[in-house]
Design brief:
alpha/beta; Rossmann fold; six-stranded parallel β-sheet; 8 strands; binds ligand FNR
Amino acid sequence: MKIIAFAGSLRSGSFNKSLLKAAIEEASDSLEIEIFDLDGIPLFNADIETEGDPKRVSEFKDAIRSADGILIASPEYNHGMTGVTKNAIDWASRPGNDMPIGGKPVGILGASPGITGTARSQDQLRQSLKSVGAHCMPKPELLLFRAHEKFDNQGNLTDDSTRRFLGKYLKAFEEWIKPFT
Ligand code: FNR
């Protein structure tokens, strides 16, 4: 099964990007996870959309269209998802127009140096995805707290229990998306 994964952070040292890289390492052979970097996706503007989707937006929508499932790792900013995450969802969910994200199964995960591990960001993300007709895996939830203690300087996940749980999470995701494919 083909999975598109994206992180709602643009920074090179992003814990959420690193978490997705670890997901590639922990996924079974039947789960082909490809990371899509949201860098280059402009802020949503209906005028730009009317003129035709920018290249990076088309690539993003095509990647979603051709995927059996989506993994989203969004940081939490000010108790919500990041603007980068929301903006990407907005481009991919235009009611009555072009809604590749609608009906797709989504696994939400996230990493934060704080102790709540993106709980509030994930709640908000679920709410938005519900409104566009995407399906979010209800359980298990993956909230990686104190993320700065769990990766090395190269962004490798060094925490064994998180690695094991990530593996379990991905197995559950693989089973859960089967009826949607
Ligand atoms: C944050 N951060 C943060 N963390 C958190 O757990 N809850 C929050 O509400 C916020 N709010 C917040 C606002 C803004 C504007 C910034 C820049 C940061 C900290 C955030 O979790 C941290 O910077 C992460 O490292 C961001 O994720 P990436 O880039 O490492 O993936």
